[in-house]
Each structure stands twice: as C-alpha cells, then as structure tokens.
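Hi R.,

Here's the chain you asked about this morning:
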Amino acid sequence: MQFIEGAIPPSLIADDIAKHSTKTNIGAHSIFLGQVRSDVIGERFIQAIEYSCYPDMCEEVMYEIREEIIPKYELNCLHIYHSIGIVDAGQICLFVFTSSKHRKNAIDACSELVERIKKDLPIWGKEIFSDENYQWKINT
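And here is the predicted structure, written out as tokens:
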C-alpha cells in the first residue's frame, strides 16, 4: 500500500496500468477508483475530505490482508494507493488494481480488497463542508 499526499493523479493510474503490458502471464485486471462525492447534508455540501491514518498500523494490517488475498485469488499483481490529506470533491482518493490469469479472480479480489480497506484499515476521513465546518466520515 502506498499513501499519496492529496488526490491520486490520473497520470499515476495510467502509468501503473501501462507497466503491466509486458507481463504476458496476466489475463485480466480489475480496477477500483474511489472518488470524493459532493454529498449534500442538510443544506451544506461536502467540498473535500481530509484523510488521516496511522501509517505503521495500516502497513501491518495491509500486509496481513495481502498475504491472504494474493494466494486466495492467485494474483499476479496487487497495487493499492490511498490519499492522505485533503482531496477535493471529484478527485480520486483510492486506487486498487488487481491482476490475475483469470477475470473472476481479479474482479473478486479487487472487490474484497475495497471492502477490507474500508472496514479494517485505520484511515479516517474528515468531511469538509462548503462553510468550512466538518464532520467525521462514517464508512459504509
């Protein structure tokens, strides 16, 4: 898992995908892109989310998840990037990229990873409203 300060740039996503074109033992990729929504709560709208975490704990938990997911789905590659800091509405905050010989494995692994990241990793989001007030995000 890699943390990126601010939004995840589209160029990083494109470069990561492009690097896999030489890996001829891969038959499928699955990609999840998490984007900050401008939800309306009451009469205020969310203009950004500020992400924070405990990096050492995240790395430890993510290592355990990787060790379980890679053999379970026979993955060739697994890449995860998560934003830290402020990410504006409309920008990418999570990039999960799985690769396998077969599409079902890549898709199922990607889906499980996203759910585990949201549930198990000590990453928090502070939803920042247009009036500069905030509330802590509840993952669903």
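One quick note: The chain has one domain: 2-136.

Cheers,
M.
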